[in-house]
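Q: Hi! First time doing this. I have a protein sequence and I read that you can turn it into a structure. Is that right? Here it is:
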Amino acid sequence: MGGAYEVILQAAKSEKVKVSLLSNVLDRLEELFKIKIDDIKNSIDIDLNRLEDMTEAIAKENLKVLIVLPEKYLGSLELGVNCKELHLINICSSNFELTGKVSRITVDGGVGEMEFDSNLDMFVDVLSHQGEIALNQIAGTSKIQVPKDYVFQAVKKGLATKISFEENGEACDDFSLQDCENVLELNGFKSELVISKK
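A: Yes, that's right. Below is the predicted 3D structure, encoded as structure tokens:
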């Protein structure tokens, strides 16, 4: 998809894919960007292309992209994006995979497996979610924040990875459970994950 400041990916009870571009700074968005939606057998591909003199740097500072997907057609989703903020709202997918560079991710509802592949340090705010959330990183230091009543299993994979826990900003003992439906996983190489209770 390229670069943007903020991307909102939302599942809704609708029949159509809707993509909206928003900015408080940029004018003539329809002349600066082109949205291309390809409906290929059992797959929908959405591309955002920059036109004229628009640069990735300007888009990453000033562009907000809202993508609404029909929830009944969600199967496996892949999102490649470079943005500061990503909001995933009610994404019920058998497999959601994020690639690119994202600093902050908010997971608000949804069910299924989510995999975030990014070597940037990330902050993931889980408001609610059922299923697995996995971070794959090389030499990253990230944090996942969960509600106090969120029940999950912590899984550490990869080489030289480390998971620690905190509550109210202070280090604490492991508060994860075993054999739980919800899984928070760290995978990769020389990466650290802090799991924090709100």
